[in-house]
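Q: What structure does this chain adopt?
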Amino acid sequence: MTNISQQKRLEILKFLQTIREEHKYNDDALITIEQNKHKKMSEYAI
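A:
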């Protein structure tokens, strides 16, 4: 059984991948997505 941090990490990564696909031609959006990804991952100490 995975712990909550691992579950949250996987949920966040899946969500971000969906957003990346929707905005793959928008450089500003992709930069923001990556910045938020790093922020969220650090919140879960991953």
